[in-house]
Amino acid sequence: MRSGLLLLLMTGGFLLHPASATEVAIPGHTETGHMQVMPNRGISMDSVLSEFGEPDERFGPVGDPPITEWVYGTFRVYFEHEIVLHSIDLNTLIMPQ
């Protein structure tokens, strides 16, 4: 009975303390308050073309494995071979001055 009461008091003590979170800052990024729709990792170049249209600019392929970069207005898409490796929203980058 005593251990049950002790457990209840300990659990109740945790409920009285507000939860807190730590904010983590990532150098070179800032929160813009909007979500840019961009291609997801793992989809093909053909899927990106059908969903987002022709890019403003194309660079590459360069290196081994071949990396290609497509520029769409405020975001860039990076491909390894024919598959999306990463998409970057340029609005979230803080450019060094």
Written overview of the protein:
The radius of gyration is 23 Å and the shape is extended. It is of the alpha+beta class. The relative contact order is 0.18. Strand 3 and strand 4 form a beta hairpin. The mean pLDDT is 79. The chain has one domain: Beta-lactamase Inhibitory Protein, Chain:B, domain 1 (2-Layer Sandwich). A four-stranded antiparallel β-sheet has the order 1-2-3-4, covered by helices on one side. The chain has helices at 2-16, 45-52; strands spanning 57-62, 67-72, 75-80, 83-89.
Provide a short characterization of the protein structure:
The protein has helices at 2-16, 45-52; strands spanning 57-62, 67-72, 75-80, 83-89. By secondary structure, the protein is an alpha+beta fold.
Architecture in CATH? 2-Layer Sandwich
Helix count, DSSP H or I runs of 4 or more residues = 2
CATH class: Alpha Beta
The low-confidence runs, each spanning 5 or more residues with pLDDT under 50, are none
* Helix content class: 10-25%
In what range is the share of β-strand residues? Answer: 25-35%
Roughly how many Å is the radius of gyration?
23 Å
Which sequence of strands runs across the widest sheet?
1-2-3-4
SSE string:
HHEEEE
